[in-house]
Specification:
11% helix, single chain, mainly beta
């Protein structure tokens, strides 16, 4: 029946049909109650029967996004069956999640087949802001699509990128949360300076896009003898030195940075905040991360207890309490000489967390909206009586910044020049005596 009340019927094969359910591929599925069968009904009315062991009974789409059905024949037996679909997974990243009014944003989405399905998905993707459609695009040969949009209204936005599916692959979607806001003022973070021949690395994170740029500008405006900065590439499990080498995933407002300076400096993280809920990505192995400035409703939050985070696996399923300690370490902070466990994330500070999942998979640590009624599915409350696996030490293998001034090399140069001047005077004096 359509919206005008017109009834349309499609002849179904005998015998009688039982329950009906919508499948993940957009088709309808029904059971045949007096024969060994179920059938699919396409959006154009094409009916495709499938034979099962007993008479069909109930049918539904399960939490795994496959069609499940029950079957029973008196005196013969009963069973539970499943129709497996070739699923896809959509992931989306944004070049920024905190925007000032009028600023554009670029979203890049990747669609992949979920095993046992194979191949590279093809077809179209749709970008929506809530229920409003903003744009559509076509996937390239690698299953990648991108959108660039601007002029979003001030406030939070849930941008949904949906892969529309392509037979036989099933549709999938992903959401990225962005906030359009005027910059906010945040307290400065004092970075201790190194003295003498000692190098002291301090763990920071930019907290806002503007804070990240201030770190890079500070490093660029000094020599390596004055300032050095290192980020951690979680994909390669190695340090990269800023500003010339960036991590594979780029430099974000939640990227941890080891900063060493011989100049007195305070990091100003003021800028455009992000919006909660916020996802921190934990790749297999060690991750050096921080928490950005977050708006929780109308409140700006700068300290985040670990009880406000939920851990999810790569299928976006909360990690159970029994497996959480196996999948993720506690959070650790470098105190200048050693690592200590941390009970919360503080704005502008870098922390280490190890993803120890087995088999290895990328995890998501999600900060929920506790001030506006959000409740963590499984809170992360972890304490340790010692560090079982030590986070990577600051990059001490790199040459430490040298003190400003001549140093021992400068003294040698001064002595050498003094010797040349003295020798020159002796030659002149000898010449006059001759």
């Amino acid at each position: 029946m359509d919206l005008a009340g017109t009834l349309a019927e499609t002849a179904a094969p005998a015998p009688a049909l039982g329950q009906i359910a919508k499948g993940p591929d957009g088709t309808l599925w029904a059971t045949q109650t007096s024969s060994q069968g179920i059938l699919s009904i396409s959006t154009t009315g094409v009916i495709t029967p499938k034979t099962i062991s007993y008479n069909g009974s109930g049918i539904t789409t399960g939490p795994d996004n496959n069609v499940w059905f029950t079957e029973y024949s008196a005196g013969f037996g009963s069973a539970i069956g499943r129709v497996n679909f070739p699923h896809t997974r959509t992931t989306v990243t944004a070049d920024r999640t905190g925007l000032i009014p009028g600023q554009s944003i670029t979203l890049t989405a990747v669609v992949s087949a979920v095993a046992p399905a194979t191949g590279i998905p093809a077809g179209t993707m749709t970008l929506r802001d809530g229920v409003s459609t903003l744009a559509t695009t076509t996937l390239d040969a690698a299953g990648v699509g991108s959108f660039t949009i601007g002029s979003l209204a001030s406030g939070p936005h849930n941008l949904t990128v949906s892969y529309d599916g392509s037979v036989p692959l099933v549709a999938s979607s992903a959401v990225v949360r962005v906030l359009v806001s005027a910059p906010v003022s945040l307290p400065a973070i004092g970075v201790p300076r190194s003295r003498g021949v000692d190098t002291h690395y301090y763990p920071v994170c930019g907290a806002t896009p503007q804070g990240v740029e201030r770190i890079l500008s500070f490093v660029r405006s000094h020599t390596r003898h004055e300032v050095r900065a290192f980020a951690w590439d979680a994909r390669t499990q190695s340090y990269t030195e800023l500003p010339d080498e960036l991590p594979t995933a780029g430099l974000r407002e939640d990227t941890g940075i080891f900063l060493a300076t011989r100049e007195a400096w305070a990091l100003d993280p003021s800028g455009v905040p992000n919006v909660s809920p916020y996802d921190l990505t934990l790749r297999p192995g060690w991750n050096f991360i921080g928490i950005p400035a977050l708006m929780d409703g109308a409140s700006l939050v700068t300290a985040h207890p670990l009880s406000e985070f939920t851990l999810f696996d790569q299928a976006n399923v909360p990690v159970t309490a029994g497996n959480r300690l196996v999948a993720m370490s506690a959070a650790y902070r470098w105190n200048g000489t050693s690592y200590e466990s941390a009970a919360q994330f503080e704005l502008g500070v870098g922390y280490w967390i190890e993803n120890t999942s087995s088999p290895a998979q990328t995890l998501t640590l999600r900060r929920v909206n506790t001030l506006t009624g959000g409740v963590p599915v499984l809170s992360v409350r972890e304490t340790t009586s010692g560090i079982a696996s030590t986070p990577p030490a600051p990059p001490s293998a790199a040459s430490p910044p040298k003190p400003k001034g001549c140093g021992s090399g400068g003294v040698g140069l001064v002595l050498a020049l003094s010797g040349l001047v003295l020798a020159r005077r002796r030659v002149l004096a000898w010449g006059r005596r001759a």
